[in-house]
Write a structure and sequence with these properties.
This protein has four helices and twelve strands. By secondary structure, it is an alpha+beta fold.
Length: about 170
């Protein structure tokens, strides 16, 4: 769990540096099977998020960084259900990783460097709704070197972790 905590935190916040500069540390709201929920506040702005790591990863790579899937709420910015994937490598420029929940149609993501997001709020909401009902999410992507990867994430504990971030960010 500690590895997940620091990987998720570093990837979620590393780009802004705000967390590091503030010295703030996230509080774990709860850990449920494969998901952990967190909350933190930086410069008066609260963020509630949940994260998981893959239960299975496939691909012909020698070295790969941390991989995780997260959902975040930023109530001060009125942003909710923001889905983010960190690949553990730099995505091929212009590539569109695809995430599929159970047998549903895959959702194309927008990649930038080692992260990927949905194209808009409506797609975030759709993906979160599928995850609430689902058992697995499978992410397929391609690295800058052309390596194809497939990561499988369990949805076990998703609903309980989601409940925690909803409550912590006043969305109950």
């Amino acid at each position: 769990m500690k590895k997940l905590y620091w990987a998720a935190l570093g990837c979620l916040l590393g780009a802004t540096g705000a967390l590091a500069a503030s010295g703030a540390k996230p509080t774990i709201l709860g850990s449920y099977d494969d998901w952990t929920a967190y909350v933190y506040t930086v410069q008066g702005e609260k963020t509630c998020y949940m994260a998981t790591t893959p239960v299975k990863s496939k691909g012909k790579y020698k070295v790969r960084g941390d991989v995780f899937l997260s959902i975040a709420h930023h109530p001060d910015k009125k942003e909710f259900d923001v889905v983010n994937v960190m690949a553990g490598y730099t995505y091929k420029k212009g590539s569109h990783p695809v995430i599929t929940v159970d047998k549903n149609k895959g959702i194309s993501l927008v990649s930038f460097e080692d992260g990927a997001w949905t194209k808009d709020k409506a797609t975030d909401e759709k993906l979160v709704a599928l995850m609430k009902k689902g058992t697995t999410a499978v992410l397929q992507g391609s690295s800058v070197r052309g390596t194809q990867t497939t990561d499988t994430f369990s949805m076990k504990g998703f609903s309980k972790a989601y409940r925690d971030i909803q409550k912590a960010c006043g969305r109950e």
